[in-house]
Amino acid sequence: MDNAQLADMAIRGLTKSYAPYSGFHVSAALLTENGKVYHGVNIENAAFSPSVCAERTAFYKAVSEGERNFIRICIAGCSNGYLETDGFSHGILSDWVPPCGVCRQVMREFCDPESFEILLARSVTDIRIIKLKDILPESFGPEIIRP
Ligand code: THU
Question: Domains plus CATH for the chain?
Answer without folding.
Answer: 3-145 (3.40.140.10)
